Amino acid sequence: MRAVVLVAALALILLMRQSLAGAEHLGGVLVWWNVVILLAFLAFNSLSGLTVAGILLLALVSLFLTGQRPSSADMQVLLAGLFSAVNVTALGFLTMRFIEQHLMLHEETTDQLAAARKDALTGVLGRAALEEELRRTIQHARKTATPLSVIVTDIDHFKRVNDEFGHGAGDDVLRSFAKRLRRNVGGSGGVVGRWGGEEFVVVLPGLARPDALVMAERLRQEVFHAPVASHQITASFGVASFRSAADDLDTLFGRADARLYEAKNAGRNAVRG
User: For this UniProt entry, which segments traverse the membrane (predicted)?
Assistant: First the structure.
């Protein structure tokens, strides 16, 4: 569209040179002049649109000053056209600036809301956003009778990392652990969030309990067989699946959390569901 506007602007300048001989013809050209100015603001941003409009206005004034002396009727048409073009330019610029500032504010607000939903340390969903996601997916599973599973996982002996290597190392482990969870469940449409401390939750819409158990075991092995942030750690996993319309956030999460503690009591580095 930008190329079309530029071509139209050039064509209008050439047409203006040919139209100075007749006021009636000139008036029609000036109407299209304003149309091209408005299109310039729509095709470009406010500053670029103002530049195109300014070039057109300068061309109009230049043709007026360098052409043969216009008749009285032509003079009235030219002055009216110039006045109209200036007003259209000002209106177009102010309107586009308002739209741009509104869009910028909307983007900033959207970014702030997105950032507020995330856990500041790990970049996954924070507790509040995670609870909201769980409620939403539970409601969807209830309405559509589709599978839904939840994995609650906890880094084994995480306190030792903080005690032996410092909280900075512990933060690195949390970040890397969250990244590894997200990388492995992203393809299944899963969502990862941090419940608090070293405890994370994986929400798996569309996955029934057998598939969720397979996913949890894959995550366990992924953590066990490769160091996390240069530290050899393990994690325990508890799995629960949506059963009936009576299930809600508390019952579903509660069952997964109970299975997690079964895995802890079984010696850690285990999956229970």
Answer: 33-65, 77-99
